[in-house]
Amino acid sequence: MGGTRRAVLGTVMALCVLAGCDARVEPPEVGPAGVDFDAEVVEFDPSGFNGPTFAALIDSESAAEAFAGWFASRRGAASTLPRVVRNPELLGDTDTHAYLAMVTSTGCRAPTSATLGRVGTDLRPELLGGIDHPECVRAYTPFVVFRVPRGAIDGLATVDGAAVDRDGPAEAIGSVELSPTAPVFTPREVTDPGRRAELADELAATGSDRARVLATLDRSSRLLDEYGPTTLRRYAFPVRSCPDDLLVLDVGRTELRARALARVDAALTCEAPTTHLAVFDVRSIHVPDGARPAS
């Protein structure tokens, strides 16, 4: 099948045979000329995790840390978490390989195998097999992790048509450099517009540009446009960074922490990082109960 490579979990296919499902289901042909790779299924749970769907590309140590944030809010024992979350070293060979981790919904069908291909700049995961039941208590949300050679993600732009995600469940919505005389402020939640105005006043009192600070705090975001303000939480952090740095929010079980990462392809470098206000949106469902922003 012209350039197609499949990753199939053999033991799960055996379950398909035992369950009487149609093992002859074929994925669509994918993989144009010049994109030829083998994908290995590292972890697969057809029942999955009851929660929001996502697709995350893990191609660095930083991306592996951010990936764990998708599961930070899930209650229960650590043993119920995916193996790659409990043992992140399993995602550690990112010099030569990358990983695609995803949770999706298959309705009332528990899939029995997973495949991965590529069309142009789009990765195409497929969850195959299983029997569609007329009804179920909740939709199946399978979890799967694919391991692919680094070359398979060169020029990659989307996963199943959606933008590539490397930074976990939070979205960095903007940053602004603060006055050199401004003391480091306490990180805080600023979901309420009144809290944003208070922080803008606090920073303006020590020399920062209030209008620029407030504009950054009030900026719209992809998450805001997609899910609306009632389902989001917004946080503000002081971060030592250069203007072109990537800003990431790590979501943990007890804390949320912001950090700056140097861009490999940054057009300019700065001699020394300065203090910036960094603002993030994250869906409320991903914030663990009691988790607090921390420096």
Task: Write structural notes for this entry.
Helix content is 16%, strand content 30%. The protein contains 6 helices and 15 strands. The strands form 4 sheets. It has a 4-stranded antiparallel β-sheet with strand order 1-6-3-2. The longest helix is centred in the last third of the chain and has 12 residues, at 193-204. The radius of gyration is 21 Å and the shape is globular. Mean pLDDT is 84; it is low at 1-34.
Quick rundown:
This protein is of the alpha+beta class and 295 residues long.
What gap, in angstroms, lies between the N and C termini? 52 Å
Task: Assess the beta-strand content as a share of residues.
Answer: 25-35%
Assign the structural class, choosing from mainly alpha, mainly beta, alpha/beta, alpha+beta, or little secondary structure.
alpha+beta
Number of E strands: 15
Sheet having the most strands? 4 strands, antiparallel
Shape: globular
Give descriptors for this structure.
295 residues; alpha+beta; disordered N terminus; four-stranded mixed sheet; four-stranded antiparallel sheet
Question: Would you spell out the secondary-structure blueprint of this structure?
Answer:
Blueprint: H1 10-19, E1 40-45, E2 54-58, H2 61-67, H3 83-86, E3 97-103, E4 113-119, E5 122-128, E6 143-149, E7 158-159, E8 162-163, E9 170-177, E10 188-189, H4 193-204, H5 210-217, H6 222-227, E11 232-241, E12 246-251, E13 255-261, E14 274-283, E15 292-294
Parallel strand pairs: 5-7, 13-15
Antiparallel strand pairs: 1-6, 2-3, 3-6, 4-5, 7-8, 9-14, 10-11, 11-14, 12-13
Helix pairs in contact: 4-5
